[in-house]
Amino acid sequence: MTTDSHTTHDADEDLRNRDIRIWVNGALLHRDEAKVSVYDSGFLLGDGMWEGMRLYNGTWAFFDEHMDRFFASCKTVSLDVGMDRAGILDALTRTAAANDMHSEVHCRLMLTRGVKVKPFQHPSLSRTGPTLVIIMEHSTPVDSLQSAGIRLATVPQVRGLPMSQDPKLNSHSKLNCVIACLQAEEAGADEGLMLDPHGFVNTTNACNFFIVRQGEVWTSTGDYCMKGVTRQKVIDLCRANGIPVFEKNFSLYEVHGADEAFLTGTFGAQTPVASVDGKPVGNGKRPVTERIRKLYKNLIEETTGRPD
Ligand SMILES: Cc1ncc(COP(=O)(O)O)c(C=O)c1O
Fold it and tell me: Which one Pfam family would you cite for this protein (predicted)?
């Protein structure tokens, strides 16, 4: 990476993260001690599901929406969570308490099919129940990303069809996205803009993608991408606040001619896009993105309480 490169997950360095405790199947272990077996299905095959969530003022933002997606994904691949969503909340609460964490916290909740008796693919080889790991970090996205914006490059790696590996599944196996990100880096950009199998603009390798054209907000149809919780919140906020919003097919032609573009994800909320394929987005002014960002911040405060 060059020195001016960014990722959408850039956070201010926080030394407290050096000593965090991580949940591994009920044990809360120092990060240096937190380990899973080399026979774990997640390590061997990427056979697991995960969620990224944020804690604000002691409340997990949009917990129900995250759990809806998590449990639906696990059910699709016959992965028995082994607990209900109250059990997950309890594990999250204990992990936050062990780390004295209350706000500006990001968590990665990961569930795999568990430890296998042999290093092969068949799911029946995982016999001892799932592995649940919760990594929580103090996490404040860097301010500079809001002014600088992210640089995207359209990459050759496309989104998968639902009947191969449905891109709606937030699986541990993210190789399709990782390859896209590598291709973006090789093109001198921060993140990859991925097309769907028909050539329409779909999403980036780690976030959902929006453009603004003449006051209208456009995003892909939602096929071939992750059903982002933040994506849906942005669509709902636009609808509730009289901002025209459309889920539709569009091509790079409309992206390169857009007035604004931004990404959405739990980590960074809305991240402006500075350029796509080396072409600057619009004239650098971002009134609609900024309005949506404020609306989203208010929504977070309404649902999790005002900052202490
Ligand atoms: C490929 C991809 N797209 C989009 C998102 C954003 O989803 P959310 O808004 O639910 O964080 C994620 C987050 O996990 C992702 O991995």
Answer: Aminotran_4
